[in-house]
Automatic annotation (TrEMBL):
Keywords: DNA-binding. The keyword Nucleus does not apply. PROSITE patterns: HTH_MERR_2. Pfam families: MerR_1. It comes from Plantactinospora mayteni. Residues 122-189 are annotated as: Disordered. This is HTH merR-type domain-containing protein. The keyword DNA-binding applies. Residues 3-72 form the HTH merR-type domain. Residues 152-163 have a biased composition (Basic and acidic residues). Signal peptide: none annotated.
Length: 189
């Protein structure tokens, strides 16, 4: 049966040596076999277990929830439905995260298209665009419904999550602080 040193297990799993020790200490790992000299010796089964932990961690499962899942696994067949519930809850969170990331990716791709087409919009110095801003509308295509679109066919507001940072946000933000609440510029004080 092959065995792996802690360094090899860390390299294989992507976890640091400190994380491996921590996971063992808090019960996420089964007791790791020791050599005669007292050094940890990981097995293929340990590496498979680490791969599961890596998957759960990389997809955002909190350590406390990982501990709950591991406890349920150790409790045996009687906990299958509870384990399923933990994984289904986690799956929903991961799916929501994927959806958000896809929306953000769409926003990024739209911005890349704008730059590639040389259509980057820059507001007058010291003025940021606002939704419905005539300067912003003049630099985009307005549809019959009054919705802002873009010449490349992408809707700048396709994603709700990113609507506050549309593709037409200013590329060059003003360097001066701008007016304070009383309307005075910092340079005038």
């Amino acid at each position: 049966m092959p065995s792996y040193t802690p360094r090899e297990a860390a390299a294989h799993s992507g976890f640091s040596l400190d994380t491996l020790r921590y996971y063992e200490r808090i019960g996420l790992l089964p007791p790791i076999r020791r050599t005669r000299s007292g050094r940890r010796s990981f097995t293929d089964m340990d590496l498979q277990w680490l791969a599961l932990l890596r998957c759960l961690r990389d997809t955002g499962m909190p350590v406390t929830e990982m501990q709950q899942f591991v406890r349920l696994m150790r409790d045996g067949q009687g906990t299958t439905q509870e384990r399923l519930a933990v994984l289904l809850t986690h799956q929903r969170r991961v799916q929501e995260q994927i959806t958000r990331l896809q929306q953000h990716l769409g926003q990024i791709l739209t911005k890349i298209d704008i730059y590639r087409q040389g259509q980057a919009w820059n507001p007058p110095h010291g003025r940021a665009p606002h939704v419905g801003d005539p300067l912003r509308i003049a630099n985009s295509d307005e549809t019959e419904s009054g919705q802002l679109g873009h010449a490349n066919g992408h809707d700048r507001h396709a994603t709700r999550e990113c609507a506050e940072t549309p593709a037409g946000i200013p590329e060059n933000l003003p360097t001066s602080p701008g007016p304070d609440r009383q309307g005075h510029n910092a340079s005038e004080k």
